């Protein structure tokens, strides 16, 4: 008996690029201390007032089936937040609540792509993107960005791959590079979508973590609201990663399709979690800035540390909780450097190759440990790179 082709091929061929992460976790399990700078998990946990509200909601009885599209209160809160931030008219009918951003990405591709359709995405990419596309029975097609462009995608490169494609997935602020797409970049992306009749799926889960520049949602650009699906989440903005509460914002007929899909798959998000999400959003931008503050601070620390040497290069870290470091001067690949660093100093970082070919020779560092530890780990990384420099 064989499994389906869909699940058997979800990872494609070869390693999924997370070998260093798994090796670090095994070292920890075996008793070896490891400084983990790998995954995007806040080092602070969900704020106590949010948990108290969640607890009160559960004790109050909101533990049964919640409405599949999301509670009216949460859908209206998300819609108001999106409209205020983007200026695009948005109502609850444009919102579907999902079990996290990952579920939203899968739902978006499933609702837009037929089996065999080509779905475009940009390289470097968040590690689950190609598997999500394969899971929706579409064909992933990567478009490489360039380190010399600070990984800002070129419209001409997207257009060259767009013939016959159905969707384009973008992510700004970007994981793994920290790049925030400029207005000119997004104008170019929008033109390609309009010229080639592409749906645009915009992953905006890091929209509250902007260190330089301005976050622009492509849904706000002329002609794009009717062809854009925006993915959002409580995970990064409110440190609610384990609560699994995300959303899609899209045209009403697309939301109706996602509701049908959810009815036959996830069947919604627990009501007490949705109530807590409303409470969290009601705390306003100041609370979101409080959650983002450690990463803003550590990004400034990283710039100071990296300015003390010239072996490791820093891709402009404009947003999100990561740094993309160029280690090509060591003569090693990103994977080779990450493995060597783990062996020599028990510091775990993600190889750039985990996120696509465009990030070869780089490593991604998550800014997710205490400030002094973080600075010390970066100094050790840089000194190690200098010792290897060819």
UniProtKB/TrEMBL annotation:
Assigned EC number: 2.6.1.1
Gene it is expressed from: aruH
Name assigned to this protein: aspartate transaminase
Domain Aminotransferase class I/classII large: 53-378
GO MF, one annotated term: pyridoxal phosphate binding
PANTHER family: ASPARTATE AMINOTRANSFERASE
Organism of provenance: Ascidiaceihabitans donghaensis
Stated family: Belongs to the class-I pyridoxal-phosphate-dependent aminotransferase family.
Family matches, as CDD domains: AAT_like
Enzyme class (EC, first level): transferase
Keywords, comma-separated and alphabetical: Aminotransferase, Pyridoxal phosphate, Pyruvate, Transferase
One Gene Ontology biological process: amino acid metabolic process
Cofactor: pyridoxal 5'-phosphate
Chemical reaction(s) catalysed: L-aspartate + 2-oxoglutarate = oxaloacetate + L-glutamate
């Amino acid at each position: 008996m064989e499994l389906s082709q869909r699940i058997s091929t979800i990872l494609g061929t070869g390693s999924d690029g997370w070998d260093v992460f798994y090796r670090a976790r095994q070292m920890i399990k075996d008793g070896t201390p490891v400084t983990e700078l790998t995954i995007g998990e806040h080092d602070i946990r969900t704020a106590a007032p949010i948990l108290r509200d969640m607890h009160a909601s559960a004790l109050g009885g909101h533990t049964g089936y919640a409405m599949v599209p999301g509670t009216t209160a949460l859908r209206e809160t998300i819609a108001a937040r999106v409209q205020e931030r983007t200026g695009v008219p948005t109502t609850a009918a444009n919102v579907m609540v999902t079990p996290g951003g990952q579920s939203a990405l899968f739902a978006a591709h499933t609702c837009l792509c037929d089996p065999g359709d080509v779905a475009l995405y940009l390289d470097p990419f968040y590690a689950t993107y190609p598997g999500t596309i394969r899971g929706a029975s579409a064909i992933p097609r990567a478009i490489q960005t360039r380190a010399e462009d600070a990984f800002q995608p070129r419209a001409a490169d997207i257009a060259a791959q767009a013939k016959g494609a159905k969707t384009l997935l973008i992510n700004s602020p970007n994981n793994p590079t920290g790049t925030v797409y400029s207005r000119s970049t997004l104008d170019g992306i929008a033109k390609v979508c309009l010229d080639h009749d592409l749906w645009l799926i915009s992953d905006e889960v890091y929209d509250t973590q902007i260190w330089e520049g301005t976050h622009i949602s492509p849904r706000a650009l002329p002609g794009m609201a009717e062809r854009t699906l925006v993915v959002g989440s409580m995970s990064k903005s409110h440190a609610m990663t384990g609560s699994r509460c995300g959303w899609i914002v899209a045209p009403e007929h697309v939301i109706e399709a996602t509701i049908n899909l959810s009815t036959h798959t996830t069947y919604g998000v627990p009501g007490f979690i949705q109530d807590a999400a409303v409470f969290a959003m009601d705390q306003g931008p100041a609370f979101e800035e409080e959650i983002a503050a450690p990463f803003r601070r550590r990004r400034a620390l990283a710039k100071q540390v990296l300015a003390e040497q010239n072996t490791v290069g820093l891709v402009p870290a404009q947003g999100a909780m990561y740094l993309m470091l160029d280690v090509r001067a060591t003569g090693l690949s990103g994977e080779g450097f990450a493995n060597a660093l783990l062996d020599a100093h028990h510091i775990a970082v993600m190889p750039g190759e985990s996120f696509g070919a465009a990030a070869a020779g780089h490593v991604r560092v998550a800014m997710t440990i205490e400030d002094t530890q973080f600075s010390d780990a970066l100094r050790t990384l840089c000194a190690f790179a200098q010792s290897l420099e060819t």
